[in-house]
Amino acid sequence: MKIVVDAMGGDHAPAVVIEGVVEALNETDAKVALVGQQDRVEEELKRYSFDRARVEVIHADEIVEMHDPATTPIRKKKNSSIAIGIGLLKSEQYNAFISAGNTGAVVAASTIILGMIPGVERPAIGLVIPTIKGFAFLIDVGANTDPKPEHLLQSSLMAGVYAKEVLGRDKPRIGLLNIGEEASKGTDFVKTTHKLMTDHLPNFAGNIEPNAIFDGDFDCIICDGFAGNLVIKVSEGLMESATTVLKREIKKSPVSLLGALLMKSRLKQLKQYADYTEYGSAPLLGVNGIVMISHGRSDAKAIKNAIKAAKREIDHNIISRFKQEVIENQ
Amino acid sequence: MKIVVDAMGGDHAPAVVIEGVVEALNETDAKVALVGQQDRVEEELKRYSFDRARVEVIHADEIVEMHDPATTPIRKKKNSSIAIGIGLLKSEQYNAFISAGNTGAVVAASTIILGMIPGVERPAIGLVIPTIKGFAFLIDVGANTDPKPEHLLQSSLMAGVYAKEVLGRDKPRIGLLNIGEEASKGTDFVKTTHKLMTDHLPNFAGNIEPNAIFDGDFDCIICDGFAGNLVIKVSEGLMESATTVLKREIKKSPVSLLGALLMKSRLKQLKQYADYTEYGSAPLLGVNGIVMISHGRSDAKAIKNAIKAAKREIDHNIISRFKQEVIENQ
Asked: Does the beta-carbon distance from B244 to A269 stay under 8 Å?
């Protein structure tokens, strides 16, 4: 079992990626293949001590930049770390691919190189998000902005498996994100999807309103990629702006400043609660292989967590489980 | 000039509504018509001292409940405070209507009783939201979940006028809410709308990403009613859950608890920043009359603010300005 990591993906690559990989090596028994510009990768690796036998470095000349079109690894940069890294999954030796690089490029390359799971028409990105009770699985957060209701049903089936196998929920409650609880609420698209899920989805628990996302009463929250991306980006923007407002307020009085200092460690916990886009692991579901997408701003901890999540997916044979679930329910 | 207020609308009506009306009477020179069950309204009014000459009470026997269908005031409860209150705007004496009641019912009744502004096909609810620099105007937050691109263009024209006349922005920057900055990003609907706005909307400043909503660089943020409702409900849920997490963290250590106490007044400022759904005024644009919708949980301050906002709209002759702007740009 070997996990392929895109050494060149992310705002702080390769340094931060390799730092995260080393942390994962030291905390788990994972084997990793680092794909990227060999000399730069080797130079970074020199800075750490770890079990070198568990790391393979595979050279990839090109880098897909963040602003490159999604088709880049397929059309123009076939020697990029994304194209080569995903291609490795076609061999049985390599079992998962992780990248903090250009999301659109990873989605497109995974879809074309790996193909789709039979019965699944479109890929979807899931994200493990924090709730006041633990975690929930939000899907899709941006792969498919104009899905058909059938696509959401297919994602839901996989999400249920993911929640059970990877997040350990025995009977996951699956909700459809909508602006009202009643089946009659929302867009035509959501109403049609609601009906389809009622008829075909085991564990469908009805609509979930956006203000209930973080309550933790649902294990999986299903939506189109536009809505899901909106949810995570609004959360990001709100917490950032609220932090700015709070800092400004605190500076207005020395007493508040003292209070803030005393609370510092706890405020940090809150920040972590809110920074889920950076720390959460985001599996790309629907493609015929394990692919994890990390935020471009990922730090070493986020990379390490992605490796651990990928390892769990491999251990639970998640792709076979997806295939089985989709076949049984269609 | 007289502002009509639905005395029976909202979770704490009529008590809280009347408390807010009295506050507005004491802080402004507004004249108010309270519509609702006369005995209950009069009883509440007895509790306060204010200029009685500026308050008219108009009896309405029925109450539209929060769970009633949107068509209720038109079909079943024609003697409700919503139906009677909105009907008053057909007379020149009454110039605005405010309700914290059933939003769908207010939208439907306003549309049917008042009709639309020429050139505007659908109503849209705007909401004044906080940003780190002041305020922005988010529209639509829930009236029209399946709009056509043309509807968003029409709302944008009115939003620009609103930002200028009521919020005092000289040349309002108008942005289209999208999950990417580039014109090529997002759903087919958003892409078509982007093109339409580029061609026809003065002051169009391009796409705005959801994480930038609270930065304050845009004066108006345009979206469909599903997306807008998602934005405000996700914000609400995130801040509520973050507060829960913070309280839990604080209780873990006496030092943090002391810190929190010292910061209390500043944390309150933050809470107010986040509670904008309850305090913001939400004008219903597109209908041929001034209608303001308040959150069902509105407190007296929210009602008072809605009355002040309605007064500003009347003073600025907002409906005539909408009509002029829509005619000039079509």
From this structure: no
Domain limits of chain A? 1-120+286-320, 126-281
A214 close to A132: Cβ distance less than 8 angstroms: yes
b/e A90-99 (16+ beta carbons within 10 angstroms → b): eeeebbbbbb
For residue B263, the model assigns a pLDDT of 74
Task: Spell out which residues of chain B touch residue A234, defining contact as CB-CB under 8 Å.
Answer: 210-211, 213, 230-231, 234-235, 238
pTM of this structure = 0.93
pLDDT digits (tens, 9 = 90+) for A131-147: 999 889 999 999 999 99
What dotted CATH number matches B122-281? 3.40.718.10
Instruction: Measure the CA–CA gap between B103 and B64, rounded to whole angstroms.
Output: 10
Domain A126-281 has CATH 3.40.718.10: yes
Task: Give A93-126 pLDDT, tens digit per residue.
Answer: 999 999 999 999 999 999 999 999 999 999 999 9
The class of domain B1-120+286-330 in CATH terms is alpha beta
Query: Is residue B242 less than 8 Å (CB to CB) from chain A?
Result: yes
Burial class (CB in 10 A: 0-12, 13-18, 19+), B91: exposed
CATH architecture of A1-120+286-320: 3-Layer(aba) Sandwich (3.40)
